[in-house]
Amino acid sequence: MAQLITVDDPADPRLHDYTNLTDVALRRRREPAEGLFIAEGEKVIRRAGNAGYGMRSMMLTPKWVDTMADLIDELTCPVYVVSPELAESVTGYHVHRGALASMARNPLPTPAELLESAGPHGAPRRVALFEDMVDHANLGAAFRNAAALGVDAVLLTPRCADPLYRRSVKVSMGTVFAVPYARLESWPHDADTLRAHGFELAALCLSEDSIDLHELAARRPEKLALMLGTEGDGLSPAALAAADVHVRIPMEAGVDSLNVAAASAVAFYATRP
């Protein structure tokens, strides 16, 4: 059973992992460099543990100690009990859920390793490729859609946001832990890696030569990589040039496009095997 440690000083160095959680630029540098990420809320913490991420520590307000008692019984890491006021002072915001955990990151596979990995249904056959998706909420929502709609894996371009950043994890409801992912190193040159593994690259865009999403789905590609770009700008010209086919989602009522997370849900659903 983990030892419960009451902490009453916001400057206590043992709470270092939880400091300044609202400073996005700082946390984006710190967390990968220190090999950690923050899980917030009971459900997300449990999902992170069930997905195989090790826990470094947990920080709870008193009312959450009983709720998390079964998990605490299994832990060997420290569990810090703090007042709601101290939690807010340390993190920089009101911690509504009252439960935070510092989790250890796992090493990421290379893109080739990911595409060759064997999951419950064999090697990946349908993957999502997110280009420069820098908004953490959109990325978390897109991961949630991927998990819910059976996408086998996700590839991220170098400039994509961190899916394990607190906001992404929170929006995804912890489903970022359910979808294996890797980060590309040289995009769009890495498109060749996908082709070498038999994938057809389909770019979601508004180009004049795009085909209807239903037409793509009717083809039933053996292996399909659905490419989505950042909110607003969409996919880059280089990404569009690297794609094998351009695909549009039919729109009505004068609407030209959807939010990228919504578009990912439509595309993932329409192309389910």
TrEMBL record:
- Keywords on record: Methyltransferase, Transferase
GO function term, MF aspect, one: RNA methyltransferase activity
Repressor among keywords: no
- GO biological-process terms attached to the record: methylation; RNA processing
* A Pfam family matched in the record: SpoU_methylase
Glycosyltransferase in keyword set: no
Domain named tRNA/rRNA methyltransferase SpoU type: residues: 130-269
Indicate what this protein is called per its UniProt record: RNA methyltransferase
